[in-house]
Design brief:
This protein is an alpha/beta fold. It has helices at about 15-30, 40-45, 65-90, 110-125, 140-155, 175-190, 205-210, 230-235, 265-270, 295-320, 345-350; strands at about 10-15, 35-40, 55, 100, 130-135, 165-170, 215-220, 250-255, 275-280, 285-290. A ten-stranded mixed sheet has the order 3-2-1-4-5-6-7-10-8-9, with helices on both faces. Helix 3 packs across helix 4, helix 4 runs parallel beside helix 5 and helix 8 runs parallel beside helix 9. Bound molecules: guanosine-5'-triphosphate (GTP) and magnesium ion (MG). Magnesium ion binds near residues 17, 18, 40, 43 and 107.
Length: about 350
């Protein structure tokens, strides 16, 4: 039977904020349907993708790493901007079966908008909604660590399915290379349905992997290099946030390009999955693992760092309120960073401000 829809139309990618925009640019180069949404027009202007793929969230001019600012923008006028954004996505991506929401966890715009958008799309469509994000590198500011922690806290409260792919920005100084690698691996996996008589990982199985809640990694190996050992090594040494050592895993898909990789040894290494899928005769060897724990250990380390630096940050933030010229010292009693105003909540607003 003829398949009328190109596989590229099954998948849609929406980038939020700078990281999101950069990643979907790499994806758009591979001919997928994409949209870049940003609170900052200047970020959109500098993004080299067709104009019709850009979407400016009205009234915004960047969120300066303040998640709350991005949420406020969506919440203005009874959530008018949020409704417009969701409707735009539903309309542009109506044929897609899987949507990837892409944005950094450490910034303001992407970090705030991705979890809230996932929650709404999940409730209002029957599509699989995946997330692609990155965690800040070791030189990032405490503000980014705080944003990152809040991002995963919110994402954890979003019910339902959909894999989360988490790039670790420690893995390369050049973030654009990480984006390129991700686009390459993801493209290889989304196209891995072969015609092999020995077995295929078909589209339903690809969807099954992507629909699994929790962390997901996808790696690709050249057919001349792929062996059981190289594939296993790359499970823990790759572009992604480190997998937990808890053997939590739901699905493993292996698509082979040679006879040198043993799926059972991969299973022994990763943990016992609920389901395995194996395909053959592909031009590269691709391994996808989903349904893993999110990187709790890394998030705990960030939380510790936030706790350690809390007092210094408070001191620094209040220091600028000191009136030195009059000779008197006027400390603010408390700093009011991101203190929500008590307000009667509306339902759509609730999705933004948890
Ligand atoms: N992997 C990767 N990380 C990026 C990229 N661009 C920015 N980052 C990381 O993302 C974090 C900053 O988030 P941005 O995406 O710039 O923030 P934003 O969503 O635009 O939010 P605001 O500018 O604060 O409104 C930092 O940790 C950066 O290192 C990228 O193209 N790839
Ligand atoms: Mg930005």
């Amino acid at each position: 039977m003829e398949v009328t829809m190109s596989i590229k139309e099954w998948y849609g990618f929406i980038g939020f904020g700078q990281m999101g925009g950069n990643v979907i640019k790499s994806i758009q180069a591979k001919d997928y349907l994409v949209m870049a949404a940003n609170t900052a027009q200047s970020d959109l202007d500098s993004l080299n993708i067709p104009e019709e793929c850009k979407y400016h969230i009205l009234g915004g001019y960047g969120s300066s790493k303040e998640r709350r600012k991005a949420k406020q923008l969506l919440a203005d006028n009874n959530c008018e901007n949020f409704d417009l954004l969701i409707n735009e996505i539903k309309e542009r991506f109506k044929e897609c079966r899987v949507i990837f929401l892409v944005g950094s966890s450490g910034g303001g715009s992407g970090s705030a908008i991705v979890p809230a958008t996932k929650r709404r799309l999940q409730a209002e469509t029957d599509k699989i909604i995946c997330v692609v994000t990155c965690i800040p590198d070791k030189n990032a500011s405490i503000k980014e660590y705080m944003n990152c922690y809040e991002f995963f806290q919110e994402l954890e409260t979003v019910e339902g399915n959909g894999a989360t792919i988490i790039i670790d920005n420690n893995r390369n100084k050049d973030k654009l290379i990480l984006n390129e690698q991700l686009a390459c691996y993801l493209d290889a996996f989304l196209n891995c349905e072969t015609n092999s008589a020995r077995g295929v990982v078909d589209r339903a199985e690809i969807e099954n992997v992507l629909s699994q809640r929790g962390a997901c990694i996808i790696n690709k190996h050249g057919s001349d290099k792929a062996t059981t050992q190289t594939v296993i090594e790359k499970i823990r040494d790759n572009i992604y946030a480190p997998l937990e050592d808890d053997e939590v895993v739901a699905n493993i898909a292996l698509v082979n390009s040679n006879d040198n990789v043993r799926l059972n040894e991969i299973v022994d290494n990763v943990g016992k999955p609920f389901a395995t899928f194996e395909g053959w005769d592909y031009d590269a060897t691709v391994l996808a693992i989903s349904g893993c724990s999110i990187p709790y250990k890394r998030l705990e380390e960030m939380k510790k760092k936030i706790e350690e630096d809390k007092e210094t940050i408070k001191k620094n933030l209040t220091a600028t309120s000191e009136r030195r010229l009059t000779g008197s010292i006027d400390f603010l009693g408390d700093i009011t960073v991101e203190k929500p105003k008590p307000e009667k909540k509306k339902s759509t607003r609730d999705l933004l401000f948890l």
